[in-house]
Amino acid sequence: xxxxxxxxxxxxxxxxxxxxxxxxxxxxxxxxxxxxxxxxxxxxxxxxxxxxxxxxxxxxxxxxxxxxxxxxxxxxxxxxxxxxxxxxxxxxxxxxxxxxxxxxxxxxxxxxxxxxxxxxxxxxxxxxxxxxxxxxxxxxxxxxxxxxxxxxxxxxxxxxxxxxxxxxxxxxxxxxxxxxxxxxxxxxxxxxxxxxxxxxxxxxxxxxxxxxxxxxxxxxxxxxxxxxxxxxxxxxxxxxxxxxxxxxxxxxxxxxxxxxxxxxxxxxxxxxxxxxxxxxxxxxxxxxxxxxxxxxxxxxxxxxxxxxxxxxxxxxxxxxxxxxxxxxxxxxxxxxxxxxxxxxxxxxxxxx
Length: 352
Prior knowledge:
Elements: H1 15-36, E1 133-135, E2 141-143, H2 158-170, H3 175-186, H4 192-218, E3 222-232, E4 235-243, E5 248-253, H5 258-264, E6 273-276, E7 289-292, H6 294-308, H7 312-342, H8 346-351
Parallel strand pairs: 3-6, 6-7
Antiparallel strand pairs: 1-2, 3-4, 4-5
């Protein structure tokens, strides 16, 4: 935004000075109006800055295709399993409904099968572990031991713990709602505090894996970086993300800039490509080769089109979208070619 000019005494200004003042005020007005028109759909501003009046707008253009599945699309349906959990044979009448003679039920054959897939109606399983004691004729007493992990008189098993961690960390449910869901579906009274403890156990168990992911991303040829605000204990923190095609790493930090980037240690001193949203701290990572996120560039082009009305933003948008389509087609063709190369030929199958 242009600097705010001082308020002059208009009575002492020449016509030329007044013209310059008017130009400066219009420039400032244009900057203010431009800032008011920015949102997460046409700039790199985060969605949280849009407020309650935000409206999602797709960058996808119109298509001449009809809605729904296209002609030639191969649909999918539920597949029968080879070994059902249970089988119910629906009984026949004991006698013929025409001549009333007894039917040879032992000769009945299955003519059609239908399967119903459902979740178990029972709430949960309880496995009781018992240790045994026996005395030898010599007087030596032998006592069996509980398996590792069975340490309390009553405790939750690994499947319940894994479900609790998945619901809170994978599905992002609040701890209180996760506890309510476990009670409603399974009849288990798990407190939010217990869920927090389970998450802590999972974090400790997976720390080595998280460290390995961070190390691999640090040396990866290409990494995507981003950040988003979130609340921790009622205070604003930042969720920093580093990812590529196969690995994703998350890190929470109270700071937004270089302090967090340096503390996490993944992005500094990388020599590969770093894809980001043009956020200023990323440009301080001089060792990286910088590439801007095309999704953010498309939003910026929307904004330029809105404020200028010029045609070149549309042309640049089409160029980026066409380039993306070509890249996707090339990747798909490469995967198809690799699949064909790895598939044994008819001759090799015959000879083998």
